Amino acid sequence: MARTPAVDGSPEGATMFLVDMTNPGLRIGEAIHTIDRSIDGGHPHLSITDCFVPDDAVLGEVGLGFRYAQVRLGPARLTHCMRWLGLARRALDIALDRAGRRELFGGPIDSLGLAQNLISDSVIDIETSDALISKSATLLHTDPKAGSAMSSIAKVHCSEAIFRVVDRAIQICGGDGVSDGLPLAQYLNEVRPFRIYDGPNETHRWAIARRASAGRSAAVRAGERYQGDAVVGRGGGA
Q: How far, in Å, CA of 76 to CA of 94, rounded?
């Protein structure tokens, strides 16, 4: 993608190009080694110098590349959410299997209140993540703009909830949880970058808050009752 000027009626903006790997202006550099390993291709440096491409290398229309990129953001976020939610379910299964058979203080681990608290919180995180994914997917189909906004909420919640599920599974499994005898430590490495990929969660929270504030202001301007002023002398009732 490159920023292009307004040409022949096309707007100024970002334009997408398809560049052959044999193009002398494109060079793949050294790979950046990250803690996640499951995505093929990795994260290499790219060097682009005097990279000439013909007109037929343009994807879509000139100047509309950013708009095209926005179209895929919602579905892409949900793809990550679904992928890692499956990993969270597997992590919980490992923890449940372990807690059901290993004994501590004269009984199975899953009979202990502390373990039950960890398990129940993980079930809650998994089910709320599942519900947000389903709602976002439905909205993307029926109302793409609302769906994109909801996918941002889903991305933040799922990325943090899934990390918590895997982390709790490690805690339940104890020393083996942080070893390579179980896959949980690698799971944690895979899901941690999700809070950065497809937009850091802090950026999503900024956008979520701005949309919430703007939406409420618009509703009040349209006639909904403003409820932000304290009422004196009524006992604090709603």
A: 28
Burial class (CB in 10 A: 0-12, 13-18, 19+), 204: buried
Cβ proximity of 96 and 118 under 8 Å: no
The string of pLDDT tens digits covering residues 64-97 is 888 888 777 778 889 999 999 999 999 999 999 9
Q: What is the pLDDT of residues 167-199, one digit of tens each?
A: 999 999 999 999 999 999 999 999 999 999 888
The interaxial angle of helices 65-101 and 144-173, nearest 10 deg, is: 30
CA distance 38 to 10: 39
* CA atoms of 95 and 170, how far apart (whole Å): 8
Residue 135: count other Cβ atoms within 10 Å of its Cβ: 16
Instruction: Give the alpha-carbon dihedral of 203, 209, 212, 218, to 10 degrees.
Output: -100
Q: Sign of torsion, CA 190 196 202 204?
A: negative
Amino acid found at 10: S
Integer-rounded Cα radius of gyration of the chain:
24
